[in-house]
């Protein structure tokens, strides 16, 4: 390489900007880059240049020892011996360098060019260790002499040898004179004497060789790296005729050499291209696919690990710490990573087993895998690095659906058994079966294992439950809709009945049949966060012995028909966890007076009766365990029936249209006439609304106001305060007898309760709008007046006391 080319290469490794030499005025800084013309002027001595050896990130690829007699007071032999000692130390450390006489002709500059950037502190520490070795060499001649780091070049003191090292600290710009201008000349090593001094003499051209960071000291050794031998061993594990293996080899090489070993990227591509051309299937231009292979999941060290597994015995470009960390990251090479529709990352561990990357289960898997496969016992830092890296890789993948227990793909449905084999049941128009390669992804969440379903009779399941003949179609419709219509709108099933009717046992049977899970019969959630956790981790939401759901009425509505839930991960951060999917909900035992109209519209009440005889707990557990695989099979037969027939039923009169179509199919299968399910569903909804009306004090007040208003145009307007004061007055004089704890305590509370009563008023033909100044405008006609009168009469007769 000629000197101009060497200087161009050298400048290319530096930072921005440069300096012009102005003689006695020193150097002046300029913005911009050094051009070919400027290098020519530098080499001729017309305009010497200084280059910036620091990048804008306060890093550098250079370590420069400035051994210069700025004052011209030293014997040149002293400069030569000191230069020789440092050059000898660099040789002892096997650190490549080049040497030049300084531009003034009185000193020597020793340049080390690293293969990649290091921080200024790292470079200075490396320089100090070289000076320690140089001191050892120097003391073979002058026992009391030592090298120290100075700030102004070579001092003329007799006791110390202060050497300037560049870079000097954490800065963005370091001006160092570019070699080969004025009296500067290239030097070369002409042997090393018995004391370790290197003899520097005039040379011809600069020769730039890269140095790698290594342990200092004359005893530090690194196993030689034979790249070609490593490639030969690595490539032996791949079949060039197999397209996937051919591409995988490219991805692994790109990860190893375009990220870590930039100067060897061309070498890696050329070796891979030559190997590609040995394939019988090779076509001209195939090698261009190297440039559009996409992102790689391989760790940079995977190439070296594969090479060693295939017989390579040489060194690697990594120190022990780097090697350990990258080996841990290479554990992810064979792990499929993905993210769900809200961005949560997952890892596939074995067949059909997917777990959140941020979960404890995944950390345990990584810990055991690194120990068993790589012989590493990872500390917390290494483990967190693997998890963070996996999550970052997963964030680059396309979003895809990750299901819980129930899934749908095209016309087929799937049920995850969550057993040790992660088996999945596929359901389609032809029947159901256990499959090995479903086109859907399941996560486990709180799901417990289900036994593989068996063929069973629906009558056996119905007889096991104490549910009346007219109620069982609604229970079956809810269970089948959970599987037939996963993640979509489904009414809230409310198991109701007198004490001793077995609501808890029925709930247990239902959940064990389609979605066994942790906490299946938990009590009522105390907050929206509790409900979020239950919905996020299971295919259904269930609970037993609820006394009130007033605080979570709105979230329950959103889970039933849409809207989802969102919450922050922690109170200290701004990230949120979202869940937009809907969930089938089933609850046993709740006071019907504690929910509002929106929730009432989403409830299907299933009434249970007292059984003729009771099973003790042991009998119940034994029978359920023995029968539930057949129960599940019978339910799956109903899903098959609905896949074939539900879409043929025309019905769209409800937000739960699919549930009604499924129920109609099941009702017909049980011998009910066409339309029976839809009509009975409408009756149930009306009953729910009536129960709610009779328990709502504000609704009762409003209906009585409307009935007694006597307004000619059937129109009445009032604000929240007026309504609240009127209701208080009627209670005091005894015209309105309601529970005091159900009466709003303020005009603001009255406004909210009126809003809640609007759907019930609408059912009876009363239209409510908001007027100016936040008033409520009530409008009705003669027909509505009659309906209101009927409501008041029914309310008066609802109790004998």
TrEMBL record:
Residues 33-136 form the TOTE conflict system primase domain. InterPro entries: P-loop_NTPase, TOTE_primase. It comes from the Bacteria. This is TOTE conflict system primase domain-containing protein.
